[in-house]
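$ ./design --mode recover --in tokens.txt
reading tokens...
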């Protein structure tokens, strides 16, 4: 599916993606191991900071990073929209 919408280059094989995902997963685990004594907000901030700013974190895993970052952004936006929808529903139900 990701290949059909242009998120993954046609020339990339499933093995390439699996290799990238393994690197991504290992990097996330290593980051968490360094941070696990911190509070959840600090860990989340460090994850976002590393995924965007640390070349050693995102280097050579471009397809997996594209999918992961698209998911992070989309999930956040959907949560905001759902929250706004609940507020609108709460206010509009009182008016009728």
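writing sequence...
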């Amino acid at each position: 599916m990701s290949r059909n919408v242009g998120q993954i280059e046609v020339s990339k094989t499933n093995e390439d993606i699996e290799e990238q995902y393994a690197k991504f997963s290992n990097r996330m685990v290593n980051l968490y191991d360094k941070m696990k004594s911190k509070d959840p907000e600090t860990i989340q901030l460090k994850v976002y900071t590393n995924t965007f700013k640390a070349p050693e974190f995102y280097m050579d895993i471009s397809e997996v990073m594209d999918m992961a970052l698209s998911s992070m952004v989309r999930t956040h936006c959907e949560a905001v929209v759902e929250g706004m929808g609940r507020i609108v529903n709460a206010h509009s139900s009182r008016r009728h």
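exit 0
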